[in-house]
């Protein structure tokens, strides 16, 4: 029993020292962390917004031309198997360092789940509702905007949520090509592992990405409640 007490005391002191060093790192780099968090969220939100628009265009084309459905699903499945580092390395050779390769990579990955969900959502709209809208004199475009897309929106937004969570991690990996965000803290910490502040940098960057992902998901849940037509809310 007496032999365990010094070890327990040592373990408690080590934990306290680790917590203190973590808070010291956060306080010393508070401005850089806040700016990195802003950049991370901005990169993901803007890229996912672009991906959503592109994915909806592709989904509408697939919905109008059913023979493209298999091709779209195949590309989506294959695209998700491409490692993020491999794609970023390719984009690095083509586009160089900075924001552009990061945006291209995130848009690519974000669009894939959204396309799949959008196609499923549009195909799941009751055809009798579409025929009724057309019978009332609505054009195909107006029927799409007033009937099909609103009814498919919850499924589309589910894809957006999946893409956003996935791309929060990919945005961290984008630090490999000097992309903005919290990934620089993770990469810097791993590169200096064993040095002063290295562990704190990697841990704070990783935890920050997780927290931001949870906050964004909560905002998307709120957006879904606000934008989903009242008649089809769960």
UniProtKB/TrEMBL annotation:
Pfam family, one: BPD_transp_1
Keywords, sorted A to Z: Membrane, Transmembrane, Transmembrane helix, Transport
Any one cellular-component term (Gene Ontology): plasma membrane
Sequence ranges assigned to domain ABC transmembrane type-1 in this UniProt record: 37-220
InterPro entries attached to this UniProt entry: ABC_transp_perm/SBD, MetI-like, MetI-like_sf
Topological type in the membrane: Multi-pass membrane protein
PANTHER family documented for this protein: GLYCINE BETAINE/L-PROLINE TRANSPORT SYSTEM PERMEASE PROTEIN PROW, OSMOPROTECTANT IMPORT PERMEASE PROTEIN OSMW
Protein name (Swiss-Prot/TrEMBL): Osmoprotectant transport system permease protein
